Please model this.
Amino acid sequence: MKTLKGPGIFLAQFGANEPPFNSLPDIAKWAGGLGYKGIQIPTWDSNLFDLTKAAESQTYCDEVKGICAENGVEITELSTHLQGQLVAVHPAYDELFDGFAAPEVRGNPKARQEWAVQQVKNAATASRRLGLTAHATFPGALAWPYWYAWPQRPAGLIEEAFDELARRWLPILNHFDSCGVDAAYEIHPGEDLFDGETFEMFLERVDNHPRANILYDPSHFVLQQLDYLGYIDAYHERIKCFHVKDAEFNPTAKQGVYGGYQPWIKRAGRFRSLGDGQVDFGAIFSKMAAYDFDGWAVLEWECCIKDNEVGAAEGAPFIEAHIIQVARKAFDDFAGSGADQATNRRVLGIS
Model:
């Protein structure tokens, strides 16, 4: 069996224009000082990382690794959540998602998509240069506006959307394969891959591509009221990244999973800091260990109540306490009597 690596921390919710959150050396030192051993880097934050340069320069990648090592951390994965989102955008969201893109492609959906595809490919190349084997991203969404069927969906609409999503991603996945890196899609409402059924619909259309994998985050399953432990049983072979994020679901007579358009703090389902929600992390870490997941356990802090720096400080010891150092020998080895084939045959009464 294998022991998870960690604790790690996703830097997306911490990057800022003020120190220590505005440069890689300072934020790496901050994370290491809290007890984190790894950092997941958002590639859209130019204060922390230059994705284009990383795709082109081994020297730059070596410098980045050196900065992290000097501050007691290593890179867990790179993230292209924002760029991956732009690989597939329904026109209803064009204006809202334009802010994720480079200024020169905003207002031009075709140019924006081409830019996003190249960004994600650059992340695969940069991951290879950094010696990483998994990458965190979003798949984007074409079908999401139609997930609740009213009015009735035209026949074939969802199938067409998933055909197109696969068509856009297949060349990207092939590039990931050439780099030896897994693309791990965060299974997430708002994305076309938001549960097991949708992941399988996509997987079928990319011919079960070996690089089409999963970023597992149980918080999104709590908000959907989906069996997050059974999900590990079903898809453990495809889980390549792990966000450790808590959530709670407290339905009332007034609202349930849809949230009633309320702000986060008033929703029945909401994200919480580690230990403040309802996720059974003991069971999750046990399943991860049993299935030999040897990737990183990475905090993604999102909470509608607690301060992010407090959540970060509490997160490292929380994850550390949940990582199971797997057994090096069976607990009942002391009672073993030793045997060989001849002994086994005699015990079974086989002549």
User: Anything to note?
Assistant: DSSP finds 13 helices and ten strands in the chain.
